[in-house]
Design goal:
With about 260 residues, the chain is of the alpha/beta class. About 40% of the residues lie in helices and about 15% in strands.
């Protein structure tokens, strides 16, 4: 079994690690193009062209499924990628976990890139799945870039700035960018208020990984031997995991689980 994942950069690590936990024997392909990051400020046409290139590089490895582990690419490029690659290659997009976060009502915040915050796409998800929850959209300028480069000081600044915009009575936070999942603990620590119930964080990696297995008719087998190889593509060329990836637990899980080729 071979599962490919794509993103502009290392935001795909969380979903890749989730696949590795469910199927340690699955071969993984990580396809990215960090030289073109960030994708958010680009026009939809430019972003779609870049995402298609990254998807084609992944598809050339002949995977059984392709996960678009990027919220922005899923918003703008998912239809084009599916039109080109399906039905031969199942393509799974990433959607912010607004529905489960809002199910309990109360105050909910969605942390997302400035390009996604306030977008018709996100507003449509809120209208469809927000229910009775009071949903606050929180832009997080610079956070994805800081995570991409493993810049600890910049991560702290961006998280603190977003936390300051988050309502003090927030019950749940939706991580609306896959990069944010890599610093989920830091986000929780910054937003949790003394005396408040434990903050719920809602990410997408686990659900996306499970959906990929369902699409190809595979069952989770977390006790399987960690035999699946790891192929890293950057701008279509075979490369090593970047050093920044190894600063996160998800990157270390992938590096330790099987030989990188």
């Amino acid at each position: 079994m071979k599962i490919a994942l794509m993103d502009s950069g290392i935001g795909l690590l969380a979903a890749a690690a989730a696949v590795r936990r469910l199927r340690p024997d699955a071969e993984l392909v990580l396809s990215s193009d960090p030289g073109s990051m960030p994708w958010g400020p680009r026009t939809p046409e430019d972003l779609t062209a870049l995402a298609l290139d990254v998807a084609r590089a992944a598809a050339a490895q002949r995977p059984d499924a392709l996960i678009i582990a990027c919220n922005t690419a899923s918003v703008h490029a998912l239809p084009a990628i599916r039109a080109e690659l399906e039905p031969a290659l199942p393509v799974i997009g990433t959607v912010p976990a607004i529905k489960p976060a809002a199910a309990g009502g109360g105050s909910v915040a969605i942390w997302a890139t400035p390009a996604t915050t306030g977008s018709p796409y996100q507003r449509g998800l809120i209208a469809e799945f927000g229910g009775t929850a009071e949903v606050t959209e929180v832009p997080c300028p610079g956070l994805a870039d800081a995570v991409e480069h493993g810049d600890e000081a910049a991560i702290d600044r961006a998280v603190a700035a977003a936390a300051a915009l988050t309502p003090s009575d927030v019950r749940a936070v939706v991580l609306g960018c896959t990069h944010y999942e890599l610093v989920a603990t830091r986000i929780r620590d910054a937003v949790q208020r003394p005396g408040r119930p434990p903050l719920a964080l809602h990410a997408s990696a686990g659900a996306v990984a499970a959906q990929a297995l369902r699409r190809i008719g595979a069952e989770p087998t977390p006790t399987a031997a960690p035999s699946g190889a790891l192929t890293v593509l950057r701008a279509g060329r075979v490369a090593a995991l970047p050093d920044a990836a190894l600063t996160y637990a998800e990157g270390r899980i992938l590096a330790a689980g099987a030989p990188v080729r």
